[in-house]
Design brief:
Blueprint: H1 2-7, H2 14-25, E1 46-49, E2 59-62, H3 63-85, H4 91-100, H5 105-108, E3 109-111, E4 117-119, H6 126-136, H7 141-149, H8 162-206
Antiparallel strand pairs: 1-2, 3-4
Helix pairs in contact: 2-4, 3-4, 3-8, 4-7, 6-7, 7-8
């Protein structure tokens, strides 16, 4: 959690910064019917995601690590666009949207006793839930739009501002890279498991058979 709060230092507007920190620290949802869904500890929170063009299936990722990487890259990307194209971007909204875009996934999945990620039964996806919570807390519309449109064409709202477009593409790029890394680990684990099975089989075959 502290790592996410540290990212909010990039938000210059004090009121917005405090709003973002409040959401990071908030462990309950506002709607009374949704209070039964408890938030996973952010330091342990993760999510399951996949890439449609891959046959490797879904993989897990850590919410905080993903958010830090995306936010750092978003800040640097925005600086390049401002420097080379003369754009004046709303960095506060961009950082706020980045920090909050996946935080509601902590209500979608929790860790079981084996530390595996399992769905909580939350009937709303993390994006819809975030929109509802941020709207309720009177966040600026630009921040809500960045969060609402971050899935891109696969979501209900397409990015309509430079900030939202930048964020969507940076988030997507990071997701593809993370998926590649995690599926590579997955393949290595499968290969190691197969090798262990083969070694066990060879050991069994090499054992001398007792005389009849």
């Amino acid at each position: 959690m502290n790592q996410l709060i540290e990212l909010t230092k990039h938000i210059k507007n004090k009121e917005l910064r405090e709003k973002v920190v409040k959401v990071i620290k908030e462990t309950e949802l506002y709607n009374k019917d949704f209070k039964k869904y408890k938030r996973e500890d952010l330091d342990r929170a993760g999510s399951v995601f996949g890439v449609s063009s891959s046959s490797m299936g879904p993989v897990e990722r850590d919410i905080i690590s993903h958010t830090i990487q995306v936010t750092e890259l978003v800040i640097e990307t925005a600086k390049v666009f401002e420097k080379n194209y003369g754009l004046k971007l709303d960095m506060d909204s961009l950082v706020a949207g980045s920090v909050l875009h996946d935080i509601m996934k902590a209500f979608e999945f929790h860790r079981d006793e084996d530390d595996d990620l399992v769905p909580t039964g939350m009937p709303l996806d993390h994006t819809t839930l975030a929109i509802a919570e941020l709207y309720h807390q009177n966040f600026p519309e630009d921040v809500i739009h960045i969060v609402a449109s971050h899935p891109g064409d696969s979501g209900t709202v397409s990015p309509r501002s430079f900030e939202a477009i930048i964020f969507h593409h940076v988030d997507s790029m990071c997701s593809v890279v993370e998926y590649y890394i995690e599926t590579k680990k997955k393949m290595q684990q499968k290969l190691m498991a197969l090798r262990r099975q083969e070694l066990l089989k060879l050991n069994e075959q090499s054992k001398p058979t007792p005389d009849a």
